[in-house]
Amino acid sequence: MPPPVRIAMLGSGFVAGFYMQGLDNVNGHEVVVNFGLDSDAAAAFAKQWKIPESSTNLATLIERDDIDLYIIALPNEAHMPVSVLLSQMKRNQVCTKPLGRQRDEAKKMLKAAKKSGKMHGYAETEVFAPAVVKARAIIENGGIGRVHWVRSRESHSGPHAPHFWDIEKTGGGAMNDLGCHCIEAARYFYGKEDQGR
Fold it and tell me: What three-state secondary structure class fits 13?
């Protein structure tokens, strides 16, 4: 039996909790530490999810050599600088959506990840929804022919934190926060390897 993948959860809020719920259904991992800017919130999150350690020092956490994977579950404005730092330190990482607040940030992240030679995953939940997976299987099996157009809609009750109302911090409000799901679904249906046609 291989040793568990040791995870650092970078975040102690709504998104981090969402990932912790998902990880409950995954074997072979151990979340060993979580990060938060507020020590009380980070400690409360660690207690809630039975994580043995919490931290408010991101630089020290990234320097650790006992972490196999860092999950970026931070506000949008932190995705690019934290991801680039992780890449510079040659750390495996997964970033929540949206990847960057705009194209230039996403490109910087991609360039740094490629240079690092380490894994960089984009955590997009839309393509794992059962109905979407089934639709993709139908497409792959030739059930409807070549996809030329995709219509998608995504919504929920509203932002979960005050920073989502700040366009500078989010990179575009609801279009960036929710629209990224629709874009990724379209890429999934078209076939990511067939982009640019």
Answer: coil
